[in-house]
Design brief:
By secondary structure, the protein is an alpha+beta fold. The chain is built from three helices and five strands. About 7% of the residues have low confidence.
Length: 135
């Protein structure tokens, strides 16, 4: 019985620890590229508002993208600017393959979110930062 009571006490302590600990956020895998704001703009678009009605034949990728980012700017959408690392502009235009390092940023202009794509050994890594590089 003593062992059971100790086990319950340990479990209760662990539960209390996990429920009172501050939230932990995952860090970005891609590094924040210095000078990204000087990279050439290759596209200007928008994050669509949350109430956007898409045509029935819209691809699943586009549907999920709209759903995933509908929270931006309180669901009102936001201008989106795509900038490409000048050293990788040709790779971007031919859709890869990509050399190592930061490749492209997408900037949600209203919220100031900088989404980064970086390539390492041919694999894409992703990150999100504010304009100053805070993860």
């Amino acid at each position: 019985m003593q062992a059971f009571i100790r086990l319950v006490a340990v479990f209760a302590g662990a539960l209390a620890l996990f429920t009172t600990t501050n939230l932990v956020y995952a860090e970005s895998d891609a590094s924040f590229p210095e000078g990204w704001d000087q990279w050439p703009i290759v596209k200007e678009s928008v994050n669509l508002p949350a109430d956007t009605v898409l045509p029935p034949d819209t691809s699943l990728f586009i549907q999920e993208s709209v759903r995933a980012y509908a929270w931006i700017n309180n669901g009102q959408g936001s201008p989106l600017t795509i900038r490409v690392n000048p050293e990788k502009l040709e790779q971007y235009q031919t859709h890869g393959p990509y050399t190592d390092g930061p490749t492209v940023v997408a900037v949600s202009e209203v919220q100031g979110i900088v989404w980064v794509t970086e390539h390492i050994d041919g694999l894409a890594l992703y990150g999100s930062y504010d304009r100053e590089g805070k993860d």
